Amino acid sequence: MPDGFFCDIIWYFAHLFVSLHPNRLINQNYKDMSDIGEIMGKIFKGCGCLSIGFVVLCVIVAVFADDEENTETKDETVQTTEQTEKKDSVIVNEPLGGDPYQELDDLIGLGSVKKEVRSLANFVKLQKQREAQGLKTAKVSYHLVFYGSPGTGKTTVARIIGRIYKDLGVLKKGHTVETDRAGLVAKYLGQTALKTDTVIQQALDGVLFIDEAYSLVPEGGNGQDYGQEAISTLLKRMEDYRDRLVVIIAGYKNEMQRFIDSNPGLQSRFNRYIDFPDYSPQELVDIFKMYMKKNQYTLADDAEEYLRESFDYVVEHKDRNFGNARFARNVFEKSIQAQANRLAGQTNLSKSVLSELTMDDLREGFASRSGISNRN
User: Fold this and answer.
1) Which CB contacts under 8 angstroms, 24+ apart, belong to 189-194?
2) Domain presence at residue 375
3) Is the entire prediction scored with pTM above 0.85?
């Protein structure tokens, strides 16, 4: 037979082989490969095309097997990356423009916090001036401990301090990397140091803010918790990068004191504490109205009094997990959702109607967060 005929048969079998799912060939330990070679040997017996056909098929098998393996590896890598991004709690905040001192003053409440931050800034500024004049300077620790309940402005103030430190020449960038135990501690032995160091590298020339830092040393732990590995890495890097890294740790007061006392290295590096008090009822009202102003909402006349009374009640009956400003924001979000539900189906709504929150809207907002709608 002419060689062209054999070549056509070779390409026919090659095409048929390609159309099959690779797993059906690979998972049988290449059994099918031998079968096909045997079949083609019978067909092309005595023909030089046999070796050519066999080589073509081997190349196809190799290409497809490698392609499938690479595809599976790529899929696994993507899946692992996505899981890491979802599980790891690390947020990088680049420094905003504007005056950080004015932004600090504009915060609602936090009078004692503002005073402490201003005092720290004044001290650092003066030491920088003394250094410029060749005078001796006092040793300054820029690392801070923030005490306080959730939603008392700790993260916001940490971002502002990063910008203030940049303004004072303490830090080059002044950005803030926010994390917690999940962002620092790995699941397996030997991985935590690398994970912690990766986060620290992101924070260089800025602030590393660790929320609920006390969770790195669980109360009543058995000594095998990987949080200790994160602390050891953190302390070493604080020394290695003492001119490039500022660490702010935050959490409940008693838990944070236990955390600091658990390690002499922590005690020596963290010696400046700022207490963040809970917000008063009036300050929570002001925070709620701040969100209203930003989003162009107004209050109905009867809603004003209800708002004050509701925050009075909430503060009076709060527990240690009370969310403070976070609670006020959540009530606002639920209130505007209630307004949307109330106005659903109506048409040709005026600007004032679209902007106004009624007492019923607020009642639903508070009820969804605290269950106080039936207090009267």
Assistant:
1) 189/226, 192/226, 192/227, 192/229, 192/230, 192/233, 193/229, 193/230, 193/232, 193/233
2) no
3) no
